[in-house]
Amino acid sequence: MIPELGLAALWLAAALAALQLTGGAAAQRGDAGDLAALVRPAAILQGLLALFAFTMLLWSFVVTDLSVKLVADNSHSMKPLIFKLAGAWGNHEGSMLLWVTVLSLAGGLIALIERRLPERTMQATLAAQGFVALGFYAFLLLSSNPFERLPVPAAEGLGLNPLLQDIGLAFHPPTLYFGYVGLSVAFSFAVGALLTRQVTPEFARVMRPWILGAWVFLTLGITAGSYWAYYELGWGGWWFWDPVENASLMPWLAATALLHSASVLAARDALRSWTIMLGVVAFSMSMVGTFLVRSGILTSVHAFAVDPERGSFILALLALYIGGALLLFALRAGTISEGQRFALLSREGALVFNNVMLSAALGIVLLGTLYPLLAEALDMRVSVGPPYFNPMSAVFVIPMLMVMTVGPLLRWRHDNIDRIRLPLALLVAIAVTVALLVGLLASVGLLPMLGLVLSVPLALAAFLPLKGRRLTRVPLATWGMVIAHFGVAVALFGMANESAFTRERLAAIEIGGTERVEDWQITLEGVDAVAGPNWTALEARLIAQRGQGEPVRISPQARNFWTPPQQTTESALITRWDGQLYAVVGDQTGDGRWQLRLWWKPFVTFIWYGGILVALGGVLAIAGRVLGDLKRRRVAARSMARRSERGRLRGAAQTAGDRA
Amino acid sequence: MSTFKPKHQRLVLVLIALAALIGAVMLAAWSLRTQADYFYLPDELVADPPPPGQAVRLGGMVERGSIETMADGVTIAFVVTDQAAARVPVRYSGILPDLFVEGSGVVAEGSVAADGIFIATNLLAKHDENYVPREMQDMHKAMDGTGPEATTVGLE
To answer: Which among A145, A162, A179 is the end of a domain?
Structure first.
């Protein structure tokens, strides 16, 4: 019964999405009648129904209803509750349902609270939102029904992929989906503004919290995913340019560009069509991301479901939405009048530079990700890895980071280079000092060197916008910018250190033997067989001692899961403020020694701390903008109340006068 | 710095963006031609070896009885072969992927050294039932094709 209720809710929600689309479209043709009035309520109800359907799916997983195919395929009655819940979205159908649920809830939310834009623009926005949702409902209901029943209930579930049975990963996909969906809201706003020719600063302000929200989720998702790959795969790397990693990076690059161009539009009414274009691109990238992940078209550790039919369905949706949006853009872009002008040397100029460089980096990543597919069409089998991605993206990212140091110091409209000469000279001096120090003390590759040299002045420059201001009066959104930029510098510092100074040791040692890596001394005390709820493992007992410090016990494992049978490597980590010791245990050699792989990775944690800081900056910016909006609303409401009061008094005085 | 001529600002912006994007695409195209890792089967690698040091991927079967551990305990030597006669000696230092076994498929990432030995920096083995490196999938299909005959030999 429960799954059938969920399915019914899904069909109803699809019908409401269709209503939302027709109502919004009717409103555009000047027929603002009954249908148009239904758009907002339809969007709200649709969101609630989708949420209901998703709750029903969660419930089926909680009670492990093995008559539902999805539960039988992906869950197991013995699994801990949290992984039963995560199992609901750790598979194709469930994750698509989560996608559309978040999408509909976002649509419902804007229908409920957003009153700043003209009503026709809102209706067009919600129509676009309904259109996107409709495609995904069709996808769910026609080709990947999550509520499908088995003819005969299974005796026991098949379990969740053990690689995915990890708390970090339980929350990783939903985080990215929130990001993707946030960008779809930004896209709907862009379509609405384009259709009704309302590309105004107000539109940018309405769109901005959604971009920021999407961007925060994408940042967190990428950071968490990177950390997961780092400790779970046991390869010691934190970014592999895997297609699925790229699928989350590309929307992030587009969202970062969009965020900055929307700021220009909101503050200065410039970059109108560029912002719309980026809105379309950002959503396209999240569709491409969904396509890459869900179609299983590319080789990837994540591509666990390969299904050509589903792949073609998403490809068709992708073509429909992106093609449609680009066509609309081509038809309407000419009618958007030019915004305010600005000089090359101005805050706008710096932001345009940031946008162009980010877009170019996006192009580089996109081409590198899709190239194996193109080559395969020509019957050539290639893979593209770090030797392509690292230098090519650096070509564009490094100039962007250079401009980022001074960009926030520049004035809007036009500025004079003399005004920022002093901080500029200071930053250059710091950069040169770092370069000399590193160059003298170590031999470092070009890219890590550039990273080190840039990260230090960048970290300092991030705080320069606060100079000469009363810290308590600085708006929250500015704090957001400062912290996010500082986070970029922190992450860059971690990346550069990790790739410049990592020390690795690979050895086979007997029980009681000792191995050294950097200033650590690691002793193998023993190897035991251990068992968990659904796995057995070989666990190495290691004692690690840094210099003369306190010895620490760690125990890396090689795990064997049994439903389904699979093996994973559980690395062991010791975190210090200046880096991490990373240990992996391998096989036993013929003569009874054990393989150990040890790394000392200086400042590697800064990569993820940086990511978290960037996300925190985004959260502060959202808080600042939303609080500002609430304050404006309160002021507006109060002045409205005062005006009506005055009107009433005047009216009363008039009647009194009349009477007299 | 002066502002742009009013009429031209939009045009200049569009041109800058276009130039950067076209530059990015051309750079990417050039770099992809030189930096992409080509995939080789053992017979292709033997017939037409890539220049020493160039990153490539080699896919094939681990020959039975060929895995040999060196004295340091962490370097192994083995032979990657195809269904036919081509054999490529491979050397790898590191922890072996969990399902790396003799007679099973493997994709080795690395390069050919001057002495003709393939130095692998990474090995991809069949990871689990669901994840198989794409190139290996075809190999498994080819093997499955020959499977039934092999198992029914002598039953008739």
So the answer is: A162
